[in-house]
Amino acid sequence: MLHSLDALAGKLSPGSKAGPTSPPASQLDGNANRVHPYHKHGTISNSPMNNNNISSKHNKNNILNASPSSNPEQDQPDPDNIKMFVGQVPHSMDENDLKQLFEEYGRVHSINVLRDKNTGISRGCCFVTFYTRKAALLAQDALHNVKTLRGMHHPIQMKPADSENRNGKCGY
Question: Would you say which domain of life the source belongs to (predicted)?
Fold first, then answer.
């Protein structure tokens, strides 16, 4: 199917050549999303620190990939890593605040704070992926139903993510 898409792209843009001279096939990122071969791994996407002149309050999600590296294959999380869903997060906490909280338990690969589409305000939950399964489980043991963050009435809810909460709701 990829070859037929390349052929179609060649028809739409005849100046570009598809086939053996094309760049290598796309890779998967830590979230099993296809990444364009020229895309830099380990960057901060849609973040105010990215200096892309886009106001972060209008971004759907801010994603923090914590460890930029010149060799992306070497700096990938373990194959058995766990993406964790975290609820009961104060709306005032951003990716960097959460990174500080979670790094007490192990190296963090990425944090994705879910935000309102229109306002960009945090929905009070996030996804965090640690480099190791052990770090994710250690964080869950230390935080789930144990630690209540400042400004919240209920303790953190942390569990393995079934899939990224597609309907945008962060409640339990």
Answer: Eukaryota
Tokens 């010149």 belong to residue: 70
Which CATH number belongs to the domain containing residue 130 in this structure? 3.30.70.330
Helices (H) and strands (E) in the chain, counts: 3, 8
Strand partners, 112: 63, 127
- Percentages helix, strand, coil for the chain (3-state, rounded to 5) are 20, 20, 60
Sheet holding 44-45, edge to edge: 44-45, 61-65, 108-115, 122-130, 83-87, 157-160
User: Does 52 have pLDDT greater than 70?
Assistant: no
Number of domain units in the chain: 1
Structural domain boundaries enclosing 104: 89-160
Query: pTM score > 0.70 for this model?
Result: no
